[in-house]
Amino acid sequence: MTKIHVAIAILYRDGKFLCQLRDDIPNIRYPGCWALFGGHLEPGETAEAALLRELSEEIAWVPANVSFFCCDVEGDVVRHVFHSQLSADVKDLVLHEGWDMKLLTAEDIRAGKCYSQKSGDVRPFGIPHQRILLNFIESI
Fold first, then answer.
1. Which among 57, 42, 43, 44 is positioned nearest to 9, based on CA atoms?
2. Which of 9, 27, 51, 102 has an alpha carbon within 20 to 30 A of 94's alpha carbon?
């Protein structure tokens, strides 16, 4: 089985975590679910370079530096997980990909769901994204 490599970011500010509500498109993984920002590695690209490119494309912001957290393997997907302080204010970020974005609390993440103003309802977390965030919260 060919593995799909993606790089994702745990971005935190004031004890909360920036999450993306994924587009509600049936052919993507975890459609309409809360997840972490990031995306696929291009051929020859390092995970860190891919992460910075994806953040620039998705929210028009990149951190000054990122730290590696873990590799999470689920079936055919290898998630290279990095973390960084979110120095920008959420209102200054520009959402170019996804339905919504929001700073979520540890309680939201533990509950596995959160309300979205844009969708107008409570949306679930993507299972691996929730697991990764809970592991990160435990580690800090």
1. 57
2. 27
